[in-house]
Amino acid sequence: MNEPADARALRADVPLPDSDHLAPQRALLTEAFRQEAVARSRPTTAAVRGIPLPRRRFVLLTAAAATGLVVTGGAVVSLTHDTPGTAPTTSPASGGRQLLSAQASADTLELAAATVEKTGATEPGPKQWVYEKTTSFDQGTPRSAEQWTRWDGTGSASLPGFPRAGDTSTFDPDKLQVWYGPNQEEKWKKEGYDDRSQRQFYRFLATLPSDPDRMMAAIRKEHALGDIKGETAAQRDWREVDVLYRSVLIPPNAQAGLFRALAKIPSARVEKGIKDPIGRAAIGVTVTYAERTASGWQGKQELFFDPKTYAYLGETRHAAPVKIPKGADGRPYAVASPAPGTDPDEMTTARAAWGVVNKPGERP
Amino acid sequence: MTESDPLCRPSRGSSTARPDTPRPDTAREGTTIADTAQPDAVLVAASLDEPERFAVLFDRHAPTIHQYVARRLGRDAADDVTAETFLTAFRIRARYDSGRAGVRPWLHGIAAKLISRHRREEVKALKLLARTGRDPVAETWTDSADDRVTAQAASRPLAKALAALSEGDRHALLLFAWAEFTYQEIAEALDIPVGTVRSRLNRARRKLRVTAGPYRPFDESDETAGDAVPPREPHAPEGDPA
User: Fold this and answer.
1) Is A195 strand, coil or helix?
2) Each residue's pLDDT expressed in tens, for chain A with a length of 364 residues
3) Architecture of domain B34-117
4) Could you tell me the pTM of the whole model?
5) Residues of B in contact with A249 (CB under 8 A)
6) Chain B residues in contact with A26 (beta carbon < 8 A)
7) Which residues of A touch B117 (CB under 8 A)?
8) How far is it, in rounded angstroms, from Cα A14 to Cα B74?
9) How far is A93 from chain B (nearest CA, A)?
10) Rg (CA), chain A
11) How close, in Å, is residue B176 to chain A by CA atoms?
12) Angstrom distance (rounded) from CA B57 to CA A179
């Protein structure tokens, strides 16, 4: 290297953002203050408005962190660690809730795969919009947000909205603002740009082989999720499947493949007779990590599906407790107890409604 | 993916502020003049009862967090990571230990975890820079790619070396070189002993020498240079524990 060859010289012209540039991030934080104040003053408030994080090119990779912002209270049901081939077991403490054996779980997931495989699917037109209403929980309080995304990736809208850069003095989060951008599919062709339009991703999924091992291998190769050192193959597959279910529209072959892939995760079990996070009848597919995983999860992770159509309904995940560095003198830090009835490491979201509509603002 | 938002924020004009430019605190919406003079730890504690007081910490540290993350991942990712860093910090603020040297290492520790989720993109960009001289990260704040190819030509071996480092070593090195952290601050941010910081930096330096050729990623007195960096206000001065 030439002089002055110094790590400090690399990208040294990176600008310091001004307050305008950071206004959306500050607005999100301010909203979090408000949410907390509302939760304190009215703990039983039915619906408190939430603001989604900005979503751009790294949406896939930031999705896990974004959902980390929502927290809910709720009992954690311990899994019974059964062995393959045993009969379905019933959890004695939870009424109709059944935790299936490994074999029964695999059978159920194969039934789900066979069911969705027979479901027809029509790809939306390029100018149609995918609608999704998400309900998440903040300290036990539900927050709903609606999102419209144009199929060809050129537009998006959300309610409540969030302020973009620039003057935010007249910003109204309840007024639908549709954002149109450059052709994402063209941008995606550029090296270093990871995100795809919904159409691109749907078509990618449609090309996947039906064999779950080959399908997961293809997904690992093409998907934008990074490897995490120390993560087991099963943990990685679970994480990949979990993120893939954030697609509202998944072609039937890929839906079937995902259920079969879940069946191949050794510790995954099916729970029947349960409710999803917003009270709909559901079946669950769970794994439980006794110890912190390399990707930062610990405890019970569960995906919820409709018991008849096997449509994705939501998920509950448990993050490993955040390790905060100790003080300079090595003293343990003070840990405050979370609010009663809440688990600060639990993250729950539900897909309350979804569909394809012809313009933003419409609902199925 | 489903939630693709194709809308990138228009690139900003190139601010020329330096990473270590002290920023005078000014009262902004939702903050008070009195708060802007409060130490970080006091504000964290006060925010437990009055959440809005956390806003001063954002105004104080978000610009440098964003700048650091942008230097590693680009401005778009920095927008997201900065938001997530402060929302996470706000959520877990009850666990903040007021005995720590300052809030900045704590925030950078949270940011480092989020940056790690973009490891693949970061390495990919560094490799592209090493191979072609084109830096997709720097292009997020400048429109003149051609100029950058020339300007960054000398950085190609360095980019190659950085790409080859482990994530932990890269965190340590770049917190040292770009965030200008002391060894102790790096240790706090990454939750590792100071001795490990030293070994990581030594290892990173060795690898950079081998890969990038003979050059000095640090000052000659690098063993003490980190500790000699004066802490920036409002951080309390600290001794050299090493």
Assistant:
1) coil
2) 332 346 888 998 899 998 888 888 888 888 788 777 766 665 433 333 333 333 332 232 233 333 332 222 222 222 233 333 333 333 333 447 788 888 888 889 999 998 998 888 889 998 999 999 999 886 677 888 899 999 988 888 888 876 665 556 677 777 888 877 766 666 656 654 455 778 888 888 888 887 888 888 888 777 656 677 788 888 888 888 888 888 899 999 999 999 999 999 988 999 998 999 999 999 999 998 888 888 778 888 999 999 999 999 999 988 777 655 555 566 655 555 555 566 667 788 999 999 999 999 999 9
3) Orthogonal Bundle (1.10)
4) 0.47
5) 2
6) 55, 58-59, 62
7) 61-62, 64-65, 226
8) 9
9) 32
10) 22
11) 9
12) 31
> Please, what's the b/e burial string for B167-178 (b: 16 or more CB within 10 A of its CB; e: otherwise)?
bbbbbbbbbbbb
Contact A23, A167 (CB under 8 A): no
Residue of B nearest to A7 (CA): B217
Contacts of residue A284, Cβ cutoff 8 Å, sequence gap at least 6: A270, A271, A274, A302, A303, A304, A305
Report how many Cβ contacts below 8 Å link chain A to chain B. Answer: 315
What residue segments make up the domains of chain A, in order of their start? Answer: 18-164+175-325+340-357
Residues of A in contact with B95 (CB under 8 A): 322, 324, 333-336
* A68, A226, A248: residue with CB nearest B2: A248
Q: Using CA atoms, how far apart are residues B146 and B152, in angstroms rounded to an integer?
A: 10
| Side chain identity, residue B194 | V
CB atoms within 10 A of CB B149: 15
Could you tell me the two tokens for A250? Answer: 């998944």
Q: What is the ipTM of this complex?
A: 0.76
Q: How far B175 CA lies from chain A's nearest CA (Å)?
A: 11
**Alpha carbons A351 and A346: distance in angstroms, whole number:** 17
Spell out the alpha helix ranges (H) of chain A: 23-41, 59-67, 102-117, 184-188, 198-206, 212-222, 233-244, 252-264
Integer Cα distance of A110 and A96 in angstroms: 22
Domain range annotation of chain B = 34-117
d(CA B49, CA B72): 35
What is the Cα–Cα distance from A364 to A132, expressed in whole angstroms? 10
Nearest to A79 by CA among A257, A282, A359, A271: A271
**What residues does A316 pair with on adjacent strands?**
A302, A348
Q: 3-class DSSP state for residue B148?
A: helix
| CB within 8 Å of B239: residues ≥ 6 apart | none
Provide the residue type at A212 as one letter. Answer: P
